[in-house]
Write a structure and sequence with these properties.
alpha+beta, two-stranded antiparallel sheet
């Protein structure tokens, strides 16, 4: 389950609508880029007229949301860290899940992730690092495609079936490994199976050598869909061992759901 975020090949950032939408498109493009971006790169990626884009970039720089690097490329501004810190401190979902993630980590010794579905991606909200010397390179706040990660497929299964089907129909599948699901019908069948058994797998579908076992999470009113996973290198933890952790992962997910209903429910 890789969590490095980058534009899909051949894709173009959504230019958004209105001034705010265009500014968000610029920020999102810089955040997703796997290399430093200069003005020409941004223009090609977001498709805005040069004059409009120049105004957007200038405003973002003046507000501290973008910064100019010594090589005249753009990076995310430090003010975003303030926003992130405030969002993080106010995230009750992560706070509720945290002790259950820690308990799952204590039982398995491997990396545990919490992710929430945002459109067609899963955003990682929390992570408890493996005790082993070789660890995951995942980062909190990064995103991965929903169709080739355990947490992403689990989160799709937490959606009502009709909504999951509608989202799957909009996915632009990219083959990341030989095991990646690249067909909507195959993914729908996989999500239906996950919905029935309560367990999802990433069988080295996003990154070679990395696999995980995951379980769906949802709120009482289905206002969000999420998942938790235990992730490990396949050379150290075989698939058979992941399967032996199914009950622990499923139980941790249910404990989080129960706490969500108690602490974030209508009477909370």
């Amino acid at each position: 389950m890789a969590v490095r975020r980058a534009p899909e090949p051949g894709g173009r950032a959504d230019a958004g609508t209105g001034t705010l939408g265009k500014a968000i498109a610029v920020l999102d493009t810089v955040a997703r880029a796997d290399r430093p971006m200069r003005f020409r790169d941004l223009r090609d990626a977001v498709g805005q007229p040069p004059g409009t884009l120049h105004r957007q970039v200038s405003n973002l720089i003046s507000e501290g949301l973008l910064q100019v690097n010594p090589d005249q490329s753009y990076g995310l501004g430090l003010r975003l860290l303030q926003f992130a810190a405030r969002a993080w401190s106010g995230n009750r979902f992560r706070e509720i899940a945290e002790p259950h993630l820690t308990a799952l980590h204590d039982k398995t010794g491997e990396t545990v992730h919490l992710g929430v579905l945002q459109d067609l991606e899963v955003i990682y909200l929390d992570k408890v690092e493996s005790r082993q010397a070789v660890r995951m390179h995942s980062q909190i706040g990064n995103a991965s495609p929903c169709y080739c990660t355990g947490v992403g497929k689990a989160a799709l299964a937490a959606l009502p079936p009709a909504e999951a089907r509608a989202r799957i129909a909009r996915i632009g599948f990219v083959r990341h490994t030989d095991n990646t699901i690249t067909d909507a019908a195959a993914l729908e069948a996989e999500v239906a199976r996950i919905r029935t058994c309560g367990i999802a797998y990433d069988r080295e579908e996003h990154e070679p050598g990395i696999h995980c076992v995951a379980a769906p999470l949802w709120s009482h009113d289905r206002s969000f869909a999420a998942g938790i996973s235990v992730t490990a290198p396949s050379y150290r933890i075989p698939l058979e061992q992941l399967a032996r952790w199914e009950d622990e992962v499923r139980a941790a997910a249910q404990a989080i759901i129960t706490d969500i209903e108690i602490k974030l429910g209508p009477r909370a």
